[in-house]
Every structure is written in structure tokens, then in C-alpha cells.
Amino acid sequence: MDATSSPRHIALVAHDNKKVELLRWAEYNRGTLAHHVLYATGTTGTMLEYELGLPVHRFLSGPVGGDQQIGARIAEGTISMLIFFWDPLEPQPHDPDVKALLRIATVWNVPMACNVSTADMIISSPLLAGDYEGTRPDLSPRAWEGPPDEAP
Predict the structure, then answer these.
(1) Which of 38, 45, 66, 95 could form a disulfide linkage to 58, CB 3.0–4.6 angstroms apart?
(2) pLDDT digits (tens, 9 = 90+) for 48-64
(3) What ranges do the domains of the chain cover?
């Protein structure tokens, strides 16, 4: 990362069956992650902080609101990237929250990886270290109203 670029704010989330996979990925990419601000849900955040020796802002566990907290930070523009190793083969009791997080990241045009291959592509992109700023859609109420009516 060059000295002029700002750190990215990266959320790291993993379901139980994917936590080891995320930890291995994060450990491999520790040098890059160290230059950014990290966020994670509950247990994942504790494990990442311990394994990487890096500060991680921890939210609640996913099933009790952590996914929604991260989604709110994405909507506010605080979190700029999501690495979410979710388990599509294991039913989750908080599945609506999982889908909401994936949806909100897509709505706000946030780079998102749901597997190691995509996470590798994102973390190794030259855009990560540059001054690239993704576009955020205009979702203000005025943007939804359409053009003003013309008087006859």
C-alpha cells in the first residue's frame, strides 16, 4: 500500500464451518490486512485478533445482530469491503440476516468475497492499494421521486 492511499475498512465474517478457512486466508494475507482497519462479528473477531495480533473492531455475534451491525456500517459508508465466508450447505438460524447482509453489500456496491478464490482476487488487486473509490448509488429520497411534473 502506498503512503498516499487511505486504509480500507474491511469486514471479515465467517460461519462456524468456514472460520478455519477464513483464519488461514487472513493469516496468509496478514501483511496486507495490517495496513487496513478490520471489523468482524463476535467469535470470528476474537479469533482473528488472537491469531493475527492485529486490532479488530468486534461487533455482536452474527445470530444476535452482528451481521446487521456490519450491514448498517456498509449503508453508512464506513465499511468499504466485505469478506464473508458463509456456508451455503449448512442451514443458519439467522438466514434472513445473512441474506440481508449480502443484499446490502450489493445495493451499496461494496466489493464482496464469499470464497477464498474471490477474496484472493480482491486482496491482490492493485485497486486495493490505490486511490480507487467505488461508486455509491444515489438512494436519497429525491433520486426515487423521478422528474418533476410539468405544469400545462
Answers:
(1) 45
(2) 999 999 999 999 998 88
(3) 9-145
Given the residues 67, 120, 131, 149, select the one marked as catalytic.
67
Q: At the fourth CATH level, which superfamily is domain 9-145?
A: Methylglyoxal synthase-like domain (3.40.50.1380)
What is the side-by-side strand order in the sheet with 112-113? 56-58, 37-40, 9-14, 81-85, 112-113
Reported in sequence order, the residue ranges of 31-119 that DSSP labels E, i.e. its strands, are 37-40, 56-58, 81-85, 112-113
- Here the contacts of 38-41 (C-beta below 8 Å, separation 24 or greater) are 38/10, 38/11, 38/12, 39/9, 39/10, 39/11, 39/12, 39/70, 39/73, 39/79, 40/11, 40/12, 40/13, 41/13, 41/66, 41/67, 41/69, 41/70
149: annotated active-site residue: no
C-alpha cell of residue 31: 501483511
| Phi, then psi, of 4 in degrees rounded to 5 | -90, -15
Q: At 83, is the secondary structure helix, strand, or coil?
A: strand
Instruction: List residues bridging with 113 in a β-sheet.
Output: 83
**Residue pLDDT, tens place only, 75-114:** 999 999 999 998 877 767 677 888 899 999 999 999 999 9
The phi-psi region of residue 77 (left if phi > 0; otherwise alpha if psi is between -120 and 50; otherwise beta) is: left
